[in-house]
Amino acid sequence: MIFSCLSFLRFIVKTVLQANLTTMFSGISALAACASVIVSIHMTKRNLKLSKENNEINVAATKQNNFDNMFFKLLELLNKNIDAIVNANDSSFNAADLISNIKKSILKKKNQKSIDAQIKFVKENKEWLLEEFIALENLEICQIRENKGKIKGTNNTRPTIYNQQINSKEDLDKYSKKMFVEKRGITEGRMWTYTEVMYEIFNGIVKDKRNDIFYDTKNTGILFLDQFSMLLQAYGENEDIFNEYEIISKPFYKINNSKNILTHTDIEDVISEEFCSIKFGSFFSIVNRIAKIIKDQYKDDVINQNKYVGILRTQIPSLLLVCVYYNAEYLPEGKKLQDNLKDLNLWGDKEELENNIHVNATMFYNAGKEINNIIENYTRNDYEEGVAPEKN
After folding, report:
1. Are 139 and 241 contacting, i.e. CB atoms less than 8 angstroms apart?
2. β pairing state of 278-279 and 86-87
3. Can you tell me whether residue 43 is helix, strand or coil?
4. CB burial class (10 A; 0-12, 13-18, 19+) of residue 150?
5. N or C: which end of the chain has fewer CB within 10 A?
6. Burial 259-294 (b: 16+ CB within 10 A, else e)
7. What's the mean pLDDT in 187-203?
8. pLDDT band (50, 70, 90) for residue 392
9. E strands in the chain
10. For residue 82, how far is the Cα from the chain centroid?
């Protein structure tokens, strides 16, 4: 009996052990299969990530290569265009001459605005001016008398007038109308007084008959400026003459200071006219295209913007950089160029502009104004939070 029970118990234990081992091995097999799946999924994800990263690197490299190819091809085209710039008559182009002519033309236009306002003043105040000229002429005659008939500051004499007194317009006309006058009052036989030269200019204005003396003083920006200067040089120590000079000259200087301000349109007219004398070809269009692709490629990448803008800058002579500014700032056809050059530092950053690194302020007609405008509208503010800009 006991033997039978033990045999039965051994059978049960054996059966249980066999069942547990089978279950255990089944569980281990299942775990192994699951682990294999997990590892497979992980490896797949990793491979996909690596593939994506590699693809992004390849795409970025391809994009950079495409940009570089386009950028340097455009630079090559730009250099060819610069070499091909000529004057309208196909003669050799000199950028220095163009910039000089622009400055002279702007100054001339500025002076013309002032002169026009002064001419209007003369016509509206001719009676007052006539009285002042008579007073000044008499003061000069007194000095001639004291100088024994000689006009101070010259070797010329006035023997027929130094003992006369001017009392009216008729008297002034009498002693001046017979004088043969060349430029700046030089005469054959004798010299006009400084007042008589001014009076001749005055008569030309009132009668709308411009004479050589008028046109000779026109480019100074102030009517009678040469005569004022010579009068002071000769008689400046005479208090009466000096006071009369101040009475006459003050309105003209005042008008010149307030009426010679040029508008954007005034400068646009000058730039447009001067640029018409030059065959620029596609110069400005190419600069615009290069500026655009730099901005498109590196919209928020200041370091690379500086790098490629610096390369572009080195390809454009400084005087042509000034032309680029004039085109972008003043001409209607330069509007897109203006937009693409905003904040791009083509002419340098604030510090470089203030220190004439890439362009010299004297190249512009109004150095301070134009440099400040470039700083305000064409440079990027790289000094936020005390961080200095990346230098090219």
Report:
1. yes
2. antiparallel
3. helix
4. middle
5. N
6. bbebeeebbbbbbeebbeebebeebbebbbbbbebb
7. 73
8. very low
9. 86-87, 278-279
10. 20
